[in-house]
Amino acid sequence: MKIAIASGKGGTGKTTISCALALAISDEVTLLDCDVEEPNSHFFIQPEIERLEKTFSLVPEVDAEKCSGCGECGRVCQFSAIISMGKKTMVFNELCHSCGACVRICPEGAIKEVQKKTGLLTIGKKDHIRFVSGRLDVGQAMSPPVIRETLKYASKDGLTIVDCPPGTSCPYVTAVKSCDAALLVTEPTPFGLHDLKLAVETIRELGIPFGVAVNRANGEQNRISEYCEAEGIPLLLQIPEDRRVAVAYSRGQALNKVMPELHETLLSIPVQLQSLTEERKVREQEALV
Amino acid sequence: MKIAITTAGHDLDALVDTRFGRAPRFLIYFTERGIFTSKENTQNLNAAQGAGIQTATHLANEQVDAVITGNCGPKAYAVLDAAQIKVYTCPGCTVGDAIEKFKRGELNAAEGANVEGHWV
């Protein structure tokens, strides 16, 4: 099973919870840091790095000798990444989504795909944790290609935990839609609730079962629990507001050491998410009958 | 000579629109005859990305010689430059005033983008 640890709002504790989960489980587990614009799970896991792997995207390259300037490439491109003016054809790599349409439509065979480096994967291991972290190159505008390369390291049949990028746009969708279930992390602030609602709306479109975790829970978490209750969303984890957590975080220490009392709850999360996915499967089968 | 001026209005009294790629329309002014036509740019108003590139490509296909606008980003400028279309910025004045200034040679051609590009 693949579990996405995601959130609408940034800084709510996705990495804290992803790492705590990976460390709490004693069986082999894969942790993928897909927050490729600012990966930091490695601070808390301290993996032994085995190898680095570059990631690439395909972008078009035009052979000006063969180009007839017909403009078909520019008409088929949905992203204005390639345009043709008379005999001159220009490529804007930063807008290219690597769909390959321009290459296939060119009647002169003047366009070929070339590799553009997009990022770097760090691959390693720590005890029972297989660890892969994606990092987007500075100057690259699109993170989904690096996220997709990181996700290829998900375990075939074991448990995979995906530390997702924040927000609710393409990076979040790319990471979450590859998973079987998700834990949406939030905090009991008005911002936390607002962005949780956005994340919930998006994940419901994707049809992925999910639960909620509240970090820094204090007297005010009512607004989150009331919302979850009204929406029928299971509240799977509450991490109390506690200075010890902040101190540990600032030292690159995992949550597990300072809050051992959360151990059983952490272990119960994959189990509960698994049963949510099974319930969904049953409902889908019933709908077919 | 054919000049394209970005604007939200319909005549020479309208203001020059500061946007290039997402300008609502262009007045295409013919300097020799002193007449103009209007060209809508609505398909690019709602483009998710690449509005500047598309707009610049359309103007290249229209075979205009110069553009007067408020701001021009790096990708739009690259296309206009490749099409050998000169870019002049004249924000805050009317289309008519901008044309007069252009005719009197009071506008300087931009040598590059004057604003940052937009990311995806």
Write the layout of secondary structure elements.
The complex is a heterodimer of chains A (289) and B (120).
Chain A: E1 2-6, H1 14-24, E2 29-33, H2 41-45, E3 48-62, H3 72-76, E4 82-85, E5 88-91, H4 101-105, E6 111-126, E7 129-136, H5 144-151, E8 159-163, H6 170-176, E9 181-186, H7 190-206, E10 210-217, H8 222-231, E11 235-240, H9 243-250, H10 255-258, H11 263-288
Parallel strand pairs in A: 1-8, 1-9, 2-7, 2-8, 9-10, 10-11
Antiparallel strand pairs in A: 3-6, 4-5, 6-7
Chain B: E1 2-7, E2 25-30, E3 35-40, H1 42-45, H2 51-61, E4 66-69, H3 74-82, E5 86-89, H4 95-103
Parallel strand pairs in B: 1-4, 4-5
Antiparallel strand pairs in B: 1-2, 2-3
Overall mean pLDDT of chain B = 90
How much helix is in the residues of chain B?
A: 25-40%
Determine the mean pLDDT of chain A: 95
Spatial order of the strands forming the largest sheet of chain B:
3-2-1-4-5
> Which word captures the global form of chain A?
elongated
Low-confidence stretches of chain B: none
Reading the helices and strands of chain A in chain order gives EHEHEHEEHEEHEHEHEHEHHH
* Biggest sheet descriptor of chain A: 9 strands, mixed
Kindly report the CATH topology of the largest domain in chain A: Rossmann fold
Structural domain count of chain A: 2
User: pLDDT below 50 for ≥5 consecutive residues: which ranges of chain A?
Assistant: none
Number of helices of chain A: 11
